[in-house]
Design a protein that fits this description.
mainly beta
Length: about 240
């Protein structure tokens, strides 16, 4: 009986140790409970950042990695994260880990989000976990809110910009646009991006108005987004479907 009780006690200690939650998260607004949703805001023209801190309350050093999961993503936007290294948008699990000593906090994480002119809220979950015990983890859900877009004064010349829909759309071998841009708007580009935000075409518009024909025969079937960029800022973004 005594041996049995010792075995049960040892098993319980092992279970508690194996599944104890040593990692916790926080940000500038304070502590984050496991699985909590937080929101960071910005406009559609720049980068929105989520800075997170990871604390280790374990009695020993933990080697911590991060993985991300897309919950809801605005088409045409892109997101990536930095943890020891900054990763491209298509990477969902960090290659590198950070050793966090007992009762210490790592301030090395940032979630970076670029709306690329697309209005809306994208939601991404980040999970921090111990490499030797994946059950010892902490996660947070981040809303990247660019729902307000860019404010444009009513009398601004940008309201006079004309930017047509692509035709044909869906496109096979080519598609066309028409545009009219006031002199005051400066440098203008037409940029086409794929679903993960990669630029597949960037064409400078050297005339203030006209039409532009784009060859699409070399693009793979799928959904793309084309944006009119004025002095490096997105004015409008629309969807383009390629179907051969």
């Amino acid at each position: 009986m005594r041996k049995f009780l010792l075995f049960v006690t040892a098993s319980l200690l092992f279970f508690v140790t194996a599944y104890a939650q040593s990692l916790s998260l926080s940000w500038d607004d304070g502590a984050i409970t496991n699985g909590q949703t937080i929101t960071v805001t910005g406009d559609t023209s720049g980068t929105v950042y989520a800075y997170l801190k990871c604390t280790n309350s374990n009695a020993s050093t933990l080697s911590v990695k991060v993985k991300k999961k897309h919950i809801s993503i605005v088409p045409g936007s892109e997101n990536y994260f930095c943890w020891m290294n900054c990763y491209i948008p298509t990477v969902f699990v960090s290659t590198y880990y950070i050793d966090i000593q007992k009762d210490s906090t790592a301030n090395d994480f940032s979630g970076d989000y670029k709306a690329h002119g697309n209005i809306g809220v994208s939601t991404v979950m980040y999970t921090f976990y111990d490499m030797s015990n994946v059950n010892d983890s902490a996660c947070v859900i981040v809303n990247y809110d660019c729902s307000l877009g860019l404010s444009v004064p009513e009398n601004s010349s940008v309201a006079k910009v004309d930017f047509s829909n692509a035709y044909p759309n869906p496109a096979n071998s080519q598609t066309s646009f028409t545009y009219a841009i006031p002199d005051s708007e400066g440098n203008a580009h037409l940029v086409i991006r794929d679903m993960v935000g990669g630029v597949v075409s960037d064409i400078e518009l050297t005339e203030n108005n006209g039409s532009l024909k784009i060859e699409t025969s070399k693009l793979s079937d799928g959904v793309y987004f084309y944006s009119l960029m004025l002095d490096g800022q997105p004015y409008m973004t629309k969807k383009l479907v390629i179907k051969h």
